[in-house]
């Protein structure tokens, strides 16, 4: 977990990381998240673990032969990760402040039980939509084109899901939601699967131990609020230029003429 664990002291962080049930659940969710990343078989990748905590999900990444960087706001949890001598690199950071990495750094991203905390305004200065957009836009930039980000999360309601997916679309992502064991109140798990730059194919409905995996919805490219395509309009052009800036490309400065339609020549 990410934001909530900033309140854990060192003793509580150690108890969390030594709980056999927690370790089992974290490993299972990490395994599922990596499966949804659809990484090349037999090829080590460089992955980002957002809300890495004490490194339980990172342990699974290492077992699969991948290299990883973990980011978490809780110094107590990261101290436990250091004591456990995890193989990944660790960074203290608030995901709502954005991801401080160069464009195209990572081959994929996973996050276990962290994303929903950005929907909370724990300080007067916190704006959930702005924090979500800051996170998603900087994450989009740090991922290589065609890669994926998979978030296991616990949404409180449909409004929270809409808030999250709207900000992800504004940042340039496409993708969808996968629900494991939808008919079970205890085993149900939500996985938000985002595609960076290239749309991918989400898992089809299938049976797993008698339970179904359902595709709730599919995200489309961001459109304006009226439902009409904004392509080639001023807003579309400004959004595209901003996305290219985040990717480290050279872009002309914005002016009052940006996106203005030219008069036809006769």
TrEMBL record:
Keywords assigned by UniProt, alphabetized: Cytoplasm, Methyltransferase, Nucleus, S-adenosyl-L-methionine, Transferase
Reported function: S-adenosyl-L-methionine-dependent methyltransferase that specifically methylates the N(7) position of a guanine in 18S rRNA. Requires the methyltransferase adapter protein TRM112 for full rRNA methyltransferase activity. Involved in the pre-rRNA processing steps leading to small-subunit rRNA production independently of its RNA-modifying catalytic activity. Important for biogenesis end export of the 40S ribosomal subunit independent on its methyltransferase activity. Locus-specific steroid receptor coactivator.
Upper taxonomic lineage: Eukaryota, Metazoa, Chordata, Craniata, Vertebrata
GO BP: any one term: rRNA (guanine-N7)-methylation
Name of the protein in its database record: 18S rRNA (guanine-N(7))-methyltransferase
A GO term from the CC aspect: nucleolus
Domain Methyltransferase type span(s) in chain numbering: 48-121
Reaction equation(s) it catalyzes: a guanosine in 18S rRNA + S-adenosyl-L-methionine = an N(7)-methylguanosine in 18S rRNA + S-adenosyl-L-homocysteine
Compartments it resides in: Cytoplasm; Nucleus
Species this chain originates from: Salarias fasciatus
InterPro entries from the UniProt entry: Bud23-like, Bud23_C, Methyltransf_11, SAM-dependent_MTases_sf
Family named by the database record: Belongs to the class I-like SAM-binding methyltransferase superfamily. BUD23/WBSCR22 family.
Compositionally biased residues, Basic and acidic residues: 248-257
Keyword Zinc: no
Annotated segments matching region Disordered: 238-266
Any one GO molecular-function label of the UniProt entry: rRNA (guanine) methyltransferase activity
Subunit organization: Heterodimer with TRMT112; this heterodimerization is necessary for the metabolic stability and activity of the catalytic subunit BUD23. Interacts with GRIP1.
Keyword set includes Nucleus: yes
Domain 18S rRNA (guanine(1575)-N(7))-methyltransferase Bud23 C-terminal intervals: 223-263
């Amino acid at each position: 977990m990410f934001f909530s664990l900033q309140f854990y002291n060192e003793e509580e962080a150690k108890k969390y990381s030594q709980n056999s049930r927690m370790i089992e659940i974290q490993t299972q969710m990490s395994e599922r998240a990596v499966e949804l990343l659809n990484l090349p078989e037999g090829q080590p990748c460089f992955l980002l673990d957002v809300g890495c905590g004490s490194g339980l999900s990172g342990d699974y990444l290492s077992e699969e032969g991948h290299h990883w960087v973990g980011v978490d706001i809780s110094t107590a949890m990261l101290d436990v990760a250091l004591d456990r001598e995890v193989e990944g690199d660790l960074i203290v950071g608030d995901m709502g402040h954005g991801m401080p990495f160069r464009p195209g750094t990572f081959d994929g991203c996973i996050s276990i039980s962290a994303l929903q905390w950005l929907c909370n305004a724990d300080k007067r200065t916190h704006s959930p939509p702005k924090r979500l957009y800051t996170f998603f836009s900087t994450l989009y930039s740090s991922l290589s084109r065609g890669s994926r980000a998979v978030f296991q999360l616990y949404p409180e309601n449909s409004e929270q899901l809409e808030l999250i997916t709207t900000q992800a679309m504004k940042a340039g992502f496409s993708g969808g939601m996968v629900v494991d064991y939808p008919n079970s109140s205890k085993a149900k798990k939500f996985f938000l699967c985002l595609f960076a730059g290239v749309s991918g194919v989400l898992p089809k409905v299938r049976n797993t131990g008698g339970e179904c995996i359902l595709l709730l919805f599919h995200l489309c490219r961001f459109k304006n609020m009226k439902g009409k395509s904004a392509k080639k309009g001023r807003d579309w052009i400004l959004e595209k230029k901003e996305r290219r800036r985040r990717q480290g490309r050279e872009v002309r400065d914005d002016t009052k003429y940006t996106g203005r339609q030219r008069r036809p020549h006769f």
